[in-house]
Amino acid sequence: MTATTLEGDLRAAAGRDPSGAAVITKEGSLTFAELDEAADRVAAGLAERGVERGDRVAVMLPNGLDAASAFYGVLRSGAALSPINPQTKLEKLTAVLADCRPRLMLCDTERMEIASAGAAATGVAAHEAAGIAVDGEPPAAPGADDLGSVIYTSGSTGEPKGVMHAHSNMAFVTGSIAESLGLNASDRVLCVLQLSFGYGLYQLFTCVRVGATLVLEPGFAFAGRVVQLLEEEEITILPGVPTVFGVLLSLKGLTEREFPHLRLLTSAGAALPEAMGHQLREALPQAGVCPMYGQTEAQRICYLPAEEYDRRPTSAGLPIPGTEAWIQDEDGEPVAQGETGELVVRGAHVMQGYWGRPEKTKDKVLPGRDASERVLVTGDLFRADQDGFLYFVSRRDDVFKSRGEKVVPREIEEVLHGAAGVKEAAAVGVPDEVLGAVVHAHVAAQPGHDVEEAALRRHCAEHLEDHMIPKRVFVHSELPRIGSGKIDKRSLKPLDE
Questions:
Q1: Helix (H) or strand (E) holding 427
Q2: How far is residue 73's CA from residue 78's CA, in Å, rounded to a whole number?
Q3: Can you give the pTM of this predicted structure?
Q4: Does 3.40.50.12780 match the CATH number of domain 220-395?
Q5: Per-residue pLDDT tens for 191-246?
Q6: In whole angstroms, how far apart are CA 339 and each of 246, 302, 366, 400?
Q7: Among 13, 51, 271, 449, which one is most buried in terms of CB atoms within 10 A?
Q8: Considering the domain 400-491 in this protein, what is its CATH number?
């Protein structure tokens, strides 16, 4: 019988395969039995420090064994897990702590100074995770309906908000993701994504669910290290964001290497450019490409089966198992095939709401067919083809008008990604007194390539309607990012001409 909580998944995995490798890092490894025992000790330590069911516990740890143990320990304690990016600055840390008011915060030695400063400003106790575990009986296991996590949105569209998920929400989406990817106990997943964000965190949860091994890296500092691990650890699945894959593709000699065990590349967090997807298929032909789409409010919503990628490379795919999704117009009516509207989702993974923000919750979550069901209004524009496959068009907030015509930034970005030498692209609207807004594009060049504004504007003119051609194209060494790895469009201000 499948567990209804994630800490129950760990108990089950430890019972099935106690000596199996659960997490492998540079610092060492943990078997499923060892991870289960570590979670017990953390949960007992939290209880000893007064943590009770329903409390929040913030965890600010880099990828590693302590993080994996702390996450499951918090869940097992009955408290709600609130992971925080270990690179978070004091101002944002203080704001998050003041918002969710955790009972205490776990960190490591390196982050103790900033954690203590943020905790002191909000009345939260900060502790080093490595020193909190104690031998003893953990509290009674949480129930499926108990609050399991408060995860803050990336802030790409405004002020970060704490997304609340019950244990049942988290358990459902973990199983659905694992099923959609065909994840099994023989898989070895390489994670260079931060566990403090949903896409990275659920690599851990899905691996434990099926008994697979998670090979965990601190981050993506060196592409050569990833190649080394793909070979040495016989990795079968590599999840990434477009930035990760872009850097990987820039490595010389990649196409000459063989990775016989690698079967799947998954992409989420930002739309995978079509040109990059084709490059991945050419460089790593033995591995299927599986783009996915989700939001913190539901973690994962749809996925494109790898066998469909070559036929529909721009599709976000189908709803994950157990989920319904449809596209509606501004009046709440379903749109016709091929027309653009807002994506709406029904499923057991839809969030409980935003922590402390009931009014914003009402705008995002609608009542379902019964009291236990919720419907998520994503705020993202989609269309569907004749077979029901979904296509992300744009975030509703990204769309603007120029010369009275609608501009969809992603269309411009796809064209720029197809230009020689472009690694990344972002298009934004800049206010204009005459035209309403004009397009400014920002690109980062591939290593060893020189790209010129005039050439990029000519390229856009060959592929785009006049009102979508960028007035300016600015070339950067790198594009700015928010903590989750997404491009930070809000920081792309108009530059002096």
A1: strand 422-432
A2: 9
A3: 0.86
A4: yes
A5: 999 999 999 999 999 999 999 999 999 988 788 899 999 999 999 999 998 888 98
A6: 31, 19, 23, 18
A7: 13
A8: 3.30.300.30
